[in-house]
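Entry type: protein chain
Record version: 2
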Amino acid sequence: MKKKHQVISRLFFHIISCIVFLSSCLSKNEKENNITKPVVRIDTIYYDDGSIKAIEQYNDSNKLHGYSYEYYPNGVLKHKVNFWYGNECGDMYSFYENGNLSKYFALNLRNEPFFGLYMDSLGNITDEVGHIMYSGYIAYPQHEDYKLDTNYTLIFIHANPKNGFTFFIDSIIIDNEKIKNYEMDTIKSEVIVDVHFKQIGKHKMVLYSSLLNEDINYFKNNVLDIHLDVVR
């Protein structure tokens, strides 16, 4: 009974955290028009012995929406996948029966993986693919060109394997000057940068980041170059 209570407590925490995360998969149009379909149904699937096998969340269009969870018979989390309108979005996790991370993928908003980790059952990395920051970004307000003396917010997404891994922004450089007007949203795996240009022409932004796991002596850095055209 105590074991089942612990499992249910973990599930409640996962459900609350995924509802907060969902807004990172919204398009600009959906945000502006408040077109959202929140979770309206949660289905729980059980093993024959009554223990929880899976939890799936659906919106009012009967599409998977939010994190779906699958569990081993012993109550250990097996898979954790986020959905948005029936499509996989954001972070995907798979675990061994001992609880160690097996696979991790970070997906962009087009459902394409931009970073992945493969690990053995002892917690050692066996392979990795991609880059820890996605090269695309979202700019608000949206324009084909950036205007002079206008405030913009640029949003970048990054890998967030958790489970002992920590993502860092080491520095952000614009036109050879280090800037400090940025913030990180660890729930949405976003880096949010505010920019304001006072000169027309081409500008270069460079984001230096790293992913660290001291327990397994893992370190990976990343350099992302962004070129911005500013007009009057």
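Comment: The longest strand covers residues 218-231.
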